[in-house]
Design goal:
It contains eight helices and twelve strands. The protein has helices spanning about 40-50, 95-100, 140, 150-155, 155-170, 185-195, 210-220, 230-240; strands spanning about 5-10, 15-20, 30-35, 65-70, 80-85, 130-135, 140-145, 180, 200-205, 225, 245-255, 255-260. Helix 5 crosses helix 6. It is globular, with a radius of gyration of 20 Å. Residues about 250-263 have low confidence and may be disordered.
Length: about 260
């Protein structure tokens, strides 16, 4: 049986690089040869034992790669094609998926729902920090990479960009809204971009690092606030000149982010 190298969880505090079999491909699957991936804060939580996973699991959930082999029932893709796979890999046909709640996907249960069931890579199935990764339900979970883009240019799409954009969507931003985005790390910056794309006309980016605030302006922020220098709430009120602006709040801590909408 062909072998590959993978980053394997052994126990809290210990992830090792070791060999394991290259996965077999089912009818609906795609086997990707991973060309680029990255480390998420969630992987750090797994390493520390703060989020439990089974021993022997390959970690990681942000792959860019080339299709090595396609399942017999997969159409619309071809072997040798560059693609990304999302960090959330729903079946596309469970009750949760059909209701638009892909992250709660659960095939095989009577009711078809499971909290965080759509997050499989590096959680309930082997993940992407390996030479190869098996993508389940490939037609629901692959996206082609345009020829003009490098791996590095699309690496944020499987998780970081989609999480930030998801925050903007959860905030139900409408054309003309005023939006405040708290914290401008990678996910916060993508939330800023997502707010702009959603039609917000006034965006306030809040952080303490000048480099992040400069990038936030490049991505669409109209005002930037350094929370270490000023009280950001009164400053945001001055910027909006409205008593109750529609905001999307992002509270970010090491390795985690919580997005919440409010008015």
């Amino acid at each position: 049986m062909a072998q590959m190298m993978a980053a394997i969880f052994v126990e809290p505090g210990r992830i090792v690089l070791d060999e394991k079999p290259v996965p077999d491909v089912g009818p609906l699957d795609a086997l990707l040869r991973v060309t680029t991936t990255t480390i998420c804060g969630t992987d750090i939580h797994i390493l520390k034992g703060e989020y439990p996973v089974r021993k022997g699991l390959t970690i990681g959930h942000e792959p860019v790669g080339i299709i090595e082999k396609l399942g017999s029932a997969v159409v619309g893709y071809k072997e040798g094609q560059r693609v990304i796979a999302g960090a959330i890999t729903p079946s596309g046909h469970s009750h949760a998926s059909l209701a638009g709640c892909h992250s709660q996907d659960s095939v095989g249960t009577r009711h078809g729902w499971k909290p965080m069931g759509g997050w499989k890579f590096g959680n309930t199935i082997d993940g992407c920090q390996a030479e190869y990764v098996l993508v389940p339900d490939a037609m629901a979970n692959l996206a082609p990479v345009p020829d003009g883009l490098t791996d590095e240019q699309v690496l944020m799409c499987p998780d970081i960009m989609s999480t930030g954009f998801g925050g903007a969507e959860s905030g139900k931003i409408r054309i003309g809204d005023t939006v405040a985005v708290f914290a401008q790390g990678p996910i916060g910056l993508c939330a800023t971009a997502g707010a702009k794309l959603s039609g917000a006309t006034t965006i306030i980016a809040i952080d303490a690092l000048s480099e992040r605030l400069a990038m936030a302006r490049n991505l669409g922020a109209d005002h930037v606030v350094d929370f270490k220098k000023v009280d950001c709430v009164p400053r945001a009120s001055i910027a909006t000149s409205t008593p109750r602006p529609s905001v999307i709040r992002m509270i970010s801590t090491t390795g985690s982010a919580f997005l919440k909408s409010t008015t």
